Structure formats: C-alpha cells, structure tokens
Amino acid sequence: MTAMMSGHMFEIQLRPQYALVRLGGFVDAAAAEKIKPVLQQQLPVGTGNIIVDLSGVEFLDSHGVGLFVSLLKRAHMNNGKLVLAAAGGQPAAVLQMVGFNGALVLYVRSMDDALKAFAA
Amino acid sequence: MIAELNTAPDLITADDLPVFRLPLPDVTYDGIRPLRLQLSAFLNAHGIAPACAAMLALTASEILTNLAKHPPEKSRQTEVKLRLHPKFAALDISDDSTAFAEFDARCHEARRKPAAAECLEESGYGLACILRQHAQVSYTPKTASPDGLNHFRVRHVYPVKTAFAASAAKHKLFLVDDDAVQLRRHEAMLSSHYDVICFDRAMMAAKAFEKERPELVVSDLNMPEMDGIGLRQALSALPRGNATPFVFLSAETAKENSPYISELGVDDFLLKPVKPEKLLGVVRRLLARAGQVRRAHEGRFHADVTDALKPALPARFGNWRICVRTVAAEAGGGDFTLSQQTSGHFLAVLADVMGHGQQAKFFSYAYAGYLRSLFRLQAAGADPTQFLANLSRSIDGDALLESIILTCQSFQLFPDGRAAIASAGHPPPLLLRAGGAVALESAGPLPGLMVDANYNLLTLQLARGDKLVFATDGFLAPFGHEGSARPRLIAQLDDLTETGAEAAADALWQHFESINHTTLKDDATLVVAEYGESP
Predict the structure, then answer these.
(1) Per the CB 3.0–4.6 Å rule, which of A77, B286, B396, B413 could disulfide with B245?
(2) Predicted ipTM?
(3) Residue to substitute from B27, B119, B125, interface A, most A β-carbons within 10 A
(4) Which residue of A72, A76, A97 is in closest CB contact with B450?
(5) Any residues with CB less than 8 A from the CB of B484 and at least 6 apart, and which?
C-alpha cells in the first residue's frame, strides 16, 4: 500500500518475517494525522518485527515521533524489534533528542543492514 | 504538492540586522510546512549553519502546531518573527489565542520527560524538543504583554563552529567615500583580492564596524556629516578600532603631512588619484604587518594553551599498551584527554571541542578545566556512561557551555582484557583483531543535548594482540566522512592487525600525514590501546 500525500510519502509492505514501513518527505503533524489511522488499519495485529526506512525523510517533528512510538509499542507487545534504517541529519537528531533508543530499537545504516537483522 | 501560503514573508533589515516576518491569518497544519520552508530558505540565505537552521525550523513548527491544535480559542493574529543577531537568532511567535497556563510548570515537566522509548507516550515531546534545543526560552501571556498578544520567544546562540565559519574567507575591507565614482573605482581595484564593503557615509561604516569586523579601513578624508577624521576617532572608541589598520585616501596634499592626522594613528595616507598597484601594495603591506603583530600576541597564548591541553595517557596499564599520537592545529578547536587508574581499571576520556580560531582554543582550555574537575569528582568505580551522563546534566541549562560543541568518548580498560566504551557525539572507535578491522557501534547524543541523556555501554572482551583505535575528527577527516565505516581507514587498518600498538600508531600517523594536504584547522589525536603485552 503506497500513499503519496502532500509533502510526505508513506508505504507499507508486509513480508513473512517483518513489516516494512517506508516514510519520506515531511513527517510532521499534518503527515502523522494522515498516516496514523492507515498504519493502524494496515498493520496486522500480531506484527512484531518492523523495519522503518527513513532514507527519504527530510523533516521529522515531535508528532512524527509519535508514529515511531506507536510502532515501538506494537513491536514491544508482540515481542518483536523495531529497526530504523538510514536515519540521518535532522530526523536522527530529533530521535536522539527525545530518547528514542533502548533494547528494542535498532539503528542501522542502510536497508541492506536492516534486512540482515531479520534474515533467517 | 505542498500547500502554498498566500502571503510572502517580509524580509527586512532593522537596525542593520536581517529580519524574517510573516503574519498568518490562521494557523493550520497544512500552512506550517510552507512557512517552515520559507524560514529555512531565509536562514540558509544568511549563512546560518544547516544544523542551527534545522533546530529553529523545528521550534517554529512545534510552536505553530501547538497553536493549531490546542487553544480552545484559536488565534486570529499570529506572527512569526526571526531576527538574526551576530551571535544568536531571536525567534518571537506572537498570537492572540487562549494563553498557555502554567508555562513554567510545563517546562519543568518537559525537561524531566523520560526517554520516548521508555515511557512509550505518543505525544507531548514538542516542548521538550524546544527546551533541549535552546538555552533561552520564554513565554509571556497576552495578559502580561504590552501589545495584548502572547509571545513565545526563543534565543538560539550559534555554536562556536558557526561563529568561526567565516575565518577562511578573503580579508574583509571597508571602503568609505561620499563620491560614488571614486568609491566604485577603488572597489574595482580591490574587489578581486579582497571582500570589500563600500559605504558612501562614514557614519554607516562606524555603525557596521563591530558587526562586520573589517581587517582594514580605507577612507576618504573630506565627507559631509562625519569626515574621515571623525570616522577614525569613532573607531578608536571601539574595542578593535585601534588595532585595525586605517588608510586615508585624499586629493588634499596639504593634509598629507598634517601632524594632527599623524597623531590619530593613521597607517598610511594616499593621494588621489591613486594607481591600482599602489593601493593594492599598501593594503597588502598593512594586512601582512597587522597579521604579524596579531600572531606575535597570539603565539604566546597559543603555546601556553596548547602545552596545557596536549593529550597524553599513561603508556601502560596492566597488560595494556597505550599509544597516543597528536598534533595541535595552529589555532583551532582543542583535543584533550583525562584519565585515572586504580588496580582494578583504567578510565579515560578523549574530548574534542569543535571550532576554529584562537577563541575555540581558549574555550577548549576552559572546558578542559571544567571536565577535569567533573572527572575527579565522580564516584569511584563509575563506568564510561556515568561520566557522560553527568557531563550532559551539568551542561544542560548553562548558556556558555551549551554554546560550545564538544564530542567526547569515554573508555574503560580492565586487566583481564575487557573494555567498556561510551560515546557522546564522538566518531565510533575501531577494533583491530586477527581477520581485519571493524568499526564498533558506539553512538550517543552530544553532551548537553538532553537533560537525561542515556548512553549505551559497549562492552568487549579483547584477545591477546587485539587493539582498540580511538580518534578525533581532526585525525579522521582526511580519511573521508563516509559514516562510521570509513572504508579508507579500515583498508589501512586491515594491514596492521598483526602489528604492535606502537608500530600500528606510527603507521597510521604516517598515513594521516601523507594524505592530509591542507593546513591543519583542527587538532588531530589518535589513541591505540593493545591488550596482551606483558607488563
């Protein structure tokens, strides 16, 4: 499922071992308001392992962070792991600033590295 | 497609400072994005470092999102105003919505908000982000404002690195003449060699002097309002005025040898019309002389500070061999080390204060003293993360320390070959062992970025002959900034897995010197720690 809305990009792909959430553009309050209900609807209830591809994210604000927390809760609930791939520049600074880290969050440099995290 | 604002910002200059001002008839989520882009473009156009610009754009976005979301009575009179001062940016967002209640209490709560990954709350990080980005944040409700509007104000002090960004530019000169033809003629002679700022009124040059900090002034003598003599006297009253070479350019031969002008401390007197080679020659000579005098003054200070900061660690701890190689930049950010050891462990800190120039060197000196005290006061047996967390807490809320960017790596070595490492914004260390070199995953926020920073402890068990390599940005920069992996460095290290610490440090240092072709602007430090050498 892919949606290109005004100023941001959002896509979910469901794979056997993980769900891939691809975000791009501006992940701010306007984007979070639109993305959140779609995420809740599209992500199967039991999804634990989630990869978020941030390579296309240009801007992240505190409302965007809320999306990541909702994904982390999902991973937490289902004994999975949240992998954040290719977070750079401003988005990485914001995630660090709010303390988005810990045992269940794994930061990797690229999507290739993210896929290795869930390789059988 | 991003929604467009119906209004464009006023980009004005007030009191010689650039100002961005944009009134918003109403505040909506969709309207915040174009405003943020316009604000970013303005900051970029005025040379504000991208990291600073991103922080200000985020803060404006958070404040406006809050206005769009929360107040029961929405604002109908919102204005975003950003004024760029030489050392800080002042953001003021005014509105007439229902005012925030208990702002101070909210700030208190936001500063103590736990890490997002721990509390798992999906909202409420906006104010925390603002407070973590800026040392000075204030809110005045409309009931207490003379203009009847709420004001959310933020002052963002540029980091030292930004303040020195212009140091590599051409020499900056002021050219002052009320005759427009002469002004353009002399500007044409000088502009290909120097950054020339022209003024047709001496008063404007005097006003701009502190902000622009020219390295030399060339001025006409006879001008209306304030003449050349008046300008020279006005500059004498300013802190750097007397140290800045001053040249008179005049058609009045009678004044060339005037004792009054000589007593003013004028460096040269050129008669109009002046030939390009004559004008350029005088400017070049005076700038060179001023540079010599400045360096002579700075040299003593530089030598004293550099000696005091010079990174050094004990050569041995138990079975560990520790080698340090370092070089100090002519004038720039300082690297320094701290260490302590007991029979049970060895704890060290490698720190790098960012910035270029004498001022950065001075800040490093002051910072090193502060860190040394903090390091000594920590509890016995503290691990590397505790020191970084203590440091981060001490910086938070201190405007001076927050304005300095420091990266820090703390590492602990144990007699049985274990090592523990934590990083605060510092390049990750590397591990050399049989089979090749790898970049270790050790990352953490810059000290002071957040109140309750959590630093991850990376623990390793080293085998005999394994080596840890720690380095500062100054050493790593010539190897390229390809992220933590730095393939060029890894390739070099792969050949050194079987080499002892001393020889490995020498080989790496020689390679660094061979590929570093520019004048060193930043200190460079390399630490190689090898486990397994017999004590």
Answers:
(1) B286
(2) 0.92
(3) B125
(4) A97
(5) A109, B427, B428, B439, B441, B443
